[in-house]
Structures are given as structure tokens and as C-alpha cells.
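sry for the spam today, last one i promise. C-alpha cells for design, 83 residues
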């Protein structure tokens, strides 16, 4: 089973902080993108997969949860290099 990326962990932490569930987030993303979005898509995003369809979901997640994906990525790289 693949591990969540730093971005995936950030999504999970934000959901806990907001007292919301994966189901809630999937419903919000589906409404925002006007497309099908389920827990399997969310799981793939949390593991770091990116396709054009998933990228629309990523953009919606960032907006809904207030995530700066670039900052999360930079933090992960910084932590890996020991900076």
C-alpha cells in the first residue's frame, strides 16, 4: 500500500482541524468541479498521482481547504535535505 505524500498528509491534517471527513471533502470537490469525485480519487491524490482529471480535484482541494501546495512541496524538500 502506497504512503501518503506530504501533500496528502496536509489534506488529512486540514480535515481533522476542520472536523470534516473525506466524504465531505469529496462532495465539496464534486460540487466545485461539477464532476464525479470520490474517495478513490482523493486517495490517489494523497499518494501523489497526478493526471489532468485529478489535477482539477487538486485545485479544488487547495481552494476548499486553503492549502498552498507549493509551500507544502517546498517544506517536504527542505525537511528531506535537512535544511
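last one done:
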Amino acid at each position: 500500500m502506497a504512503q501518503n505524500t506530504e501533500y496528502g498528509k496536509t489534506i488529512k491534517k486540514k480535515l481533522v482541524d476542520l472536523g470534516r471527513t473525506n466524504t465531505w471533502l469529496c462532495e465539496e470537490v464534486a460540487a466545485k468541479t461539477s464532476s464525479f469525485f470520490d474517495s478513490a480519487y482523493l486517495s490517489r491524490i494523497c499518494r501523489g498521482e497526478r493526471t489532468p482529471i485529478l489535477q482539477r480535484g487538486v485545485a479544488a482541494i487547495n481552494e476548499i481547504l486553503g492549502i498552498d501546495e507549493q509551500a507544502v512541496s517546498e517544506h517536504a524538500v527542505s525537511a528531506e535535505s535537512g535544511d
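The first helix runs from residue 6 to 18. ok im logging off now
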